[in-house]
Amino acid sequence: MGSGDKPARAGKARFKQRRHEHADVRKPKLEGDGYEMVENDAPLMDEDDEDEDEDVLETDLLLTREITSPCLGRSASENSVASAGSQQYWDNTKGISMVFFNPSPDSDHTQGATIATLSLKENSASSTSANLGSTLGKRSFNYLSGETIVESRNTRPKVSTDPDDPFVLEPANKPSAEHDHHEPVFIAFDGSYQIFFDKRELSFGVQWEIARLVSAGRLKYGDIPVAVLDKLKGTNTNAAPQVVRLLLPDAVAKESTQFAAAVKEELQAKAPWTELDKEFAAHQDSPTAGLGCSGSSSWYGGKVHFIGKLKEAGKKDGKHNFTIELDRPELGPSSRFARRFGSYSFLRVNIKKDILNNKNMADDLAAFFYRPFVINGRVYRGLLSKEHSVFLYMTNERVENRRIVSPKDDVDSPGGQMSLLRFLNWHNPLKENQNQTVVKWAARFALGFSNSVPGLKLEAEHIHTIDDQASESWDGMGKLPSELDMTDGCGVANAPLLKRLREVFEWEAYPTAVQCRLGGAKGLILLHPLGRYNDTQTIPEAYVRPSQIKIKYAEGEPLDEAMLIVDVLRSSKMKTPARLSAETIINLAENGVKASSFVKLMHDGLEELVRGLTTWDGQNAMESLFYKVAKVGGVMGARMARELGGKSRAMGFGQIEDDNDDEDDEDDLQIDPALQQRSTAWWDDQISGQPSSLQETVMVLLASGFHPRTCSVLAAKLENVLGTAVDSYVKRYKIDVGMSCEAFIVPDPYGVLEDGEIHIKIQGSGMGASSFLGEDMLPTDVVRGKVLVTRHPCKVPTDIQKVTAVERPELRQFCNVIIFSTKGKRSLASMLGGGDYDGDKVIAIWQPEIVKNFRNADVSYANPPEGLNKCFVQNTETVKELLQRVPPTTDYDAHVHELQTFLLGSLKNQSAVGNYSVMHDNAVYEHGYFDERTKRLAYMFCACLDGSKTGLVIDPEVYKKDLKEFKDKKGKGPEWKAKPKDANRDGDNSIHLKRPSNMHSFIMDVCKKQGLAKSRELMQRYKDLLKPYATGKYDEDLAAVYFEAKEHAEEVQKMGCVGKMEELERIVAHVNRVRIQHRDMLKLGSPRKGRANVGFTNLKIEARQDMLRALSKEFVSEPTGLIFFSASDMRRVRASYAYYHDWEEMSKRSCERWTRFPWDVSMRDLCEIKAKAIGYEKTITRSFYDKMNIVQFARVAR
Hints:
This protein is of the alpha+beta class and 1198 residues long. Helix content is 36%, strand content 13%. A hairpin with a 2-residue loop joins β7 and β8 (319-326). The two termini are 58 Å apart.
């Protein structure tokens, strides 16, 4: 642990305390620059002395931790002695002088182990040596002999080939072999070096970075000079970034300070080290300090993500082997677990799909993660498998003799780590939740990893439980079924609580509902029926229902502070208009909506989109275009997401998605990810000023005074923006419906809505809409009349329902939510794909041409088909039954292993959700939407979706049969689902699934045909708009700076001074050289392993950014040492010539007269030149520009 880390400081404090209590314990002292030499002619301990000092015992215990782990052998009895002082185990060893002895060359290595000696000195006047022979088991000596070898700060430790030598370097990240679940996996660890790390109190970040390089195969422990470790002391912020530079100096290019300053903001956006220092400092004050909600500070912890990735390591004896390679930690969203126990307590291991989906690897993969993992002496255990990751938890265990040992009495480590079993009981106590199935018990751990932000801490007495409201059709027998629970998942919050949350998160609109976690409960909390203006309540209070309580805690015992905090996921927000998806379109069409209605909506939406991006004339035309581009690209939300990081979702802002889902893109640039500082997706190039996204590039050019008719690069970029938007609209079938909205659904708090009635009211603020478009085409804040409601997934005919929207005065305070009635035979939410009120969002549509022709499907489709349960194997074992089968008194490892089989169950039982979605699509296309086979596949999909919580696992024979009938023989599936990049992929020559001739035209075939035709028409319209300017226009403003400098250099040259012309020629030569490099980069792209060149634009965003930034650094780095040009003048001249030279070169060809080159390397300078040439420019900083609110442009556009 490092400086500022709690374990180190706490250990030192306890060491000093015992030194004070026991006068015989003497603090050792280092001599000078290294360790002192110890004479070998005195016994370290008299074996006949029965009255051993306590300092000798404590020293033995400390050295047991530091030296015998993992190299020195110990007998079982000695191990038990070493565990006698469980708290002493955690003591820090700073100040203990280690002296290591190598046996003489002629000594018997098989009989004698290397011996470690502790030298104790007081006032540098006397010394006491203690024989550690008693700790060496059968390989012990009573006396020392031979040459003394000491640690040198200028040499590396000697490496012995003897497996018993404490300087044997543990092979890092050794591939897994055929071991049981007791055998640890050493990801990166060496016992000897761990001594050096801990003695120097190297920070957690420094040790992680060393482990990362070791796990990546870029570094061996034996290659680390001990003297360098002294340079890595200090905080995470100061020391961790220096690891690669100091340990692998030849692998990292040195960058000038100007570059470091330029990228500082971007690096800080994801660099975790300062945040990690805050966490360690906070946890030193209190183990719960990272939870937030304390005092006036808004800080909270848990934002650092420690990540690894699983790698295949071949096969041995018929079994698959794996290793884990550690990645750079990054900042990200926080979670309750990370806040409570520290980010450093968790490691997320990402697993590629091809490994997860390989059935032949499943058993070996699960067996691998059942084992303990060791990184820097810290022991991690598999806690949860979810989606494509396995989460590991750092326990309080230690490594001893290559085995994992638990401290006596299961005490916490100073960092607050528990044993895995105690951690599991902290979150979801086995005793209090015995009626849960073990599968559901295991699934509850995902709640602790939910991305959330702490909102407000409540007092325990202000958290109440209220009953759920049952349907009138429930007979009161047994547990209330979810479809008959009219308030399933929705509790209540009083006005003071919601008001306080609004202040914390600075929400512009008053929150009617908040999705959150509170103790063992999850779901929504809805405004109390007393309303927001009631002043009878002043203390924040929450009311949760039984349907929300997923975890029970012991009654009468105080709750952990983490369980009293309202952890916020998101607040209520009304989105209008909403968008249809392919599933929704199919359902609507099959239930009576005409195809012409969708075609019209698609055409109208595309026309509006293109009109907004091609209206270039008139007052404020460019300002309006600026706003439209920002809206299409979601620029403002992306800026706020970058600014707010993990808090963006809770505050209502989105994030940009990665545009490349290829998981193997790490090889794109053949850059070692362990060494390179990769760019952050979608961040501007701070060197050149070039934005990363198309939309922001267009906005920067517009803001600088460029016009698409006169600036070829702007026109081309704008065409790409338009093409991307049109392509997404058509091929993703995301059709805007003007009269629609999307929001949380909540139950009627007053019971004033009748069966089949809903209430929708909007309250606008800030950038959000403030009104709906009513049927009369006029703005309104309340929806009235017939409305269709649906949610995702929408696969069954009854997943869309026609209801009536009404206005009730009692509900006017409940804005930005969709309120469902609590009356009727069953919950309306449950009719929509099995929904509830725990945070489900519903789309409401009142567009006349859609609503009037829609008819509700037969209610029988809302019930699963008979015999569906026979398709699954369900594990119904309860926690109570498991505890009877494997009681807590069982061997600890065996007990933990049994729990891990459930916690990591998805590794062996991979989800079939994706395949059943494909099979359902195929069945809809081939057999029809209402066919019983289609219905069964829809319910199979839904059952798979909830399998991790219900314990349902598909019968292998059923799965095999379904794949054969509905997927394997269906070729590429329906053509409407095909994407351009899927054509002939991997040599696949199969044909698309054909629609039977006796069936009606399929709506998605119609949409695709009509959409593609319309998109071609609109893109041609854009090209026609630019035809008069097809060859582009030479921008004299941009070239003028170069020609002015050239003219002045020529005049000076005529006067006999050639210096300025020579310097200008150096600028010209440099630009010419970099342009060639830019051309080659774009032409060659980047080859991937085993594949042809993929082309620059097809690379992952980070890969493109890295290549461009390397070039922009090259561009601005030269020329240097100029006398006749100031730095600012040289910068402008260089950019101006880059533009002119590019134009001149391209004019020699028949193609377009520009390339990206000048803009990629000098965007900021070219924009500055243009703005100054136009005049009336305003200079602002980039950070201020990014934070500017663009609502004013929205007003202009309207």
